[in-house]
Design a protein that fits this description.
The protein contains five helices and ten strands, in the order E-H-E-H-E-H-E-E-H-E-E-E-H-E-E. The strands form two sheets. Strands 1-9-10-6-5-2-3-4 form an eight-stranded mixed beta sheet, with helices on both faces. The structure holds S-adenosylmethionine.
């Protein structure tokens, strides 16, 4: 496994205008890299935080069978409208992944909704409700991967793309490292792939971590 990648943070396709101010997509190239590394044609893939469907779009192109779960109805409808297999884009809540009907999975890749250590809103309701704090956020991430682990084949892998968060007051939330620690209780941590981004989001966000796990 190569442990660094240099990618351009560019999108092949613009989002519809209503979503353009909140474009949280990772680039297709990132998904292409990991699907090629960990999956074969026909393999089953899950993105538990589907967003605008990048994982599913690339998976369709590479002939993988990918499912995605998205909490926000407008995003889910958009993804359904652009896929060849819209039935694989699911409206739902990944904190309750056990309730989602899925085949046994070969692979998962995602970028989760972020939370800073001092933030108040709940990332798992698209920031629409009050949260229960950073400790509970990390517990919830772990619980999602406990549920995902039950659906993963013995040979399965999971990748989480995430950054540490730099705050305006000069502090940092070590989000990537904290998620790595939590999910390591469930899956075997194989290590991180550092991705450097051209056309960055700004200071602190010229790189991110792809945390790579295998089924225990
Ligand atoms: C960082 S974005 C993912 C972007 C995606 N990788 C892409 O390229 O479009 C995280 C997504 O998780 C969704 N989300 C948040 N809480 C969720 C939950 N409980 N279940 C499923 N999706 C959720 C958010 O609405 C958001 O679209």
């Amino acid at each position: 496994m190569k442990t660094y990648l240099c990618l351009k943070n560019v999108q092949k396709k613009a989002l519809p205008e209503e979503f353009q101010s909140d474009d949280v997509r990772y680039p297709e190239e990132l998904v292409e890299h990991f699907l090629s590394e960990f999956t074969c044609s026909g393999d089953f893939v899950l993105d538990p935080f589907m967003g605008y469907g990048t994982t599913l779009i690339v998976a369709e192109r590479l002939k993988r069978v990918a499912f995605g779960v998205e909490f926000e109805e407008r995003r889910w409808r958009y993804v359904q409208s652009i896929l060849r297999h819209p039935d694989r884009a699911l409206l739902g809540d990944s904190t309750r992944l056990d309730a989602v009907q899925l085949p046994d999975l070969d692979f998962s890749i995602t970028s989760p909704p972020y939370m800073g250590a001092h933030h108040k809103e709940n990332p798992f309701t698209a920031y629409a409700t009050e949260g229960y704090g950073y400790g509970q956020y990390l517990e919830t991430i772990k619980s999602i991967y406990v549920q995902l682990n039950r659906k993963l084949k013995p040979s399965g892998h999971a990748v989480i793309e995430v950054s540490n968060l730099k705050h305006e007051d000069g502090t940092t939330t070590t989000l990537a490292w904290d998620i790595a620690r939590e999910v390591s209780d469930v899956l075997r941590f194989l290590g991180e792939v550092v991705v450097t981004w051209d056309d960055t989001y700004g200071y602190g966000y010229d790189h991110s971590y792809c945390l790579v796990f295998a089924k225990r």
